[in-house]
Task: structure prediction
Amino acid sequence: MRYARPAFAATLVGALFFCGTAGGQPDVRITAVTEFIDAAVRPWLDEPAILNAVIAQNAAHAGLSQAEIDDLDARWRSELSSADRPMIEAQLSNPLSLYLKGRQRAADGLITEIFVMDNRGLNVGQSDVTSDYWQGDEAKWQKSFGAGALHIEEAERDESTQLMQSQASLPIRDPATGAVIGAITIGVNLDAL
Result:
């Protein structure tokens, strides 16, 4: 599945995404990212691949203490600089991560990364390695899971790819109850939008 590019001109977005709101007008970058998320990402959130993985991990992690969460995060971070990476490799090869990698490929460069978090802020699956395993102390999780709303980070240039991008995070809800059960973060390539 390929994604249609939004109808507005990329040059307009490129010229204006650094501008905040002027005179009460919405930020063009936020509007562009919101439209992309609504059209291309929200439909995934009812997919069994995402829902089942989040529900299963919520159950598995229900009894974790903060100290255990910190230990998992420290283990992840230590594996980043190691040749032996069992935790990272297991995460990147799980069914949800493989699903997310396929979604990223299908986006034709519009998505730079995708990761799904549980109700504790721990990664459930991801398209690429993240710098940490626990996102619960970051705005992306707090403002999407905690507030139950779309949260769009400021645009920034990625040092490794030199792409201008913004992270958009939104809650994942149980379709039966509407309760927030997790969150998803998508890196949106503003240069390609």
Q: What stands out?
A: The CA atoms of residues 3 and 107 lie 6 Å apart. The helical segments are 10-16, 28-41, 48-60, 66-80, 86-92, 95-106, 139-146. DSSP finds seven helices and six strands in the chain.
